[in-house]
């Protein structure tokens, strides 16, 4: 089903729950992995993904359809992930570098990543990036997201996103070649 069909089913009180379940089944995995690349930890990513769909359920009536449904969900996931990291920094009174150090430790103990040396090295390189560059790199490299869609999600101009991606790839390349 495409977005229009899903939304039409959602607007019908008799098929609303079914339609939302279909939306969750369609987008849950992609949302989870996007969140996971930001927060690293599986349990945190699960919690945030659940929160994303709760927020979506509560706000879907207000969805205007100006963007794709996935872009809208991605924006919610983006905001929830960033807010989670900010709360974590404030809650523990730690500077961003310490949060990134904690994320790097979680990477090493993650059974999905820890055993793959190349993937681990790439993820550690990504964690050295400033937050904005890390997000842009993840969206572009892993999600293959067009800059225009990224712009909708982040509220940043396409030109700035391209520059961020360029600098992110350069820093990752430098990190990977300097640690050989």
Description:
The mean pLDDT is 85. By secondary structure, the protein is mostly helical. It contains nine helices and no strands. 78% of the residues lie in helices and 0% in strands. The longest helix is centred in the first third of the chain and has 24 residues, at 16-39. The protein folds into two domains: 1-93, Rna Polymerase Sigma Factor, Chain: A (Orthogonal Bundle); 98-180, Arc Repressor Mutant, subunit A (Orthogonal Bundle). It starts with a helix and ends with a helix.
Give the SSE layout.
Elements: H1 3-11, H2 16-39, H3 42-59, H4 69-92, H5 96-109, H6 117-127, H7 131-142, H8 147-154, H9 158-178
GO biological process, one term: DNA-templated transcription initiation
Keywords: DNA-directed RNA polymerase, Sigma factor, Transcription, Transcription regulation
InterPro entries: RNA_pol_sigma-70-like, RNA_pol_sigma-70_dom, RNA_pol_sigma70_r2, RNA_pol_sigma70_r4_t2, RNA_pol_sigma_r2, RNA_pol_sigma_r3/r4-like, WH-like_DNA-bd_sf
């Amino acid at each position: 089903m495409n977005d229009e069909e899903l939304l039409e089913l959602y607007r019908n009180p008799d098929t609303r729950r079914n339609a939302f379940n279909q939306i969750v089944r369609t987008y849950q995995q992609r949302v989870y992995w996007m969140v996971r690349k930001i927060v690293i930890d599986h349990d945190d990513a699960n919690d945030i993904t659940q929160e994303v769909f709760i927020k979506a359920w509560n706000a879907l009536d207000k969805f205007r359809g100006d963007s794709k449904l996935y872009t809208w969900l991605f924006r919610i996931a983006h905001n929830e992930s960033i807010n989670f990291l900010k709360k974590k920094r404030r809650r523990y009174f730690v500077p961003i570098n310490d949060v990134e150090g904690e994320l790097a430790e979680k990477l090493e103990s993650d059974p999905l990543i820890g055993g793959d040396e190349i993937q681990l090295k790439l993820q550690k390189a990504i964690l050295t990036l400033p937050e904005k560059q890390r997000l842009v790199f993840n969206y572009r490299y892993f999600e293959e997201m067009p800059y225009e869609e990224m712009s909708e999600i982040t509220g940043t101009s396409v030109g700035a996103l391209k520059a961020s991606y360029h600098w992110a790839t350069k820093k990752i390349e430098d990190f990977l070649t300097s640690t050989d």
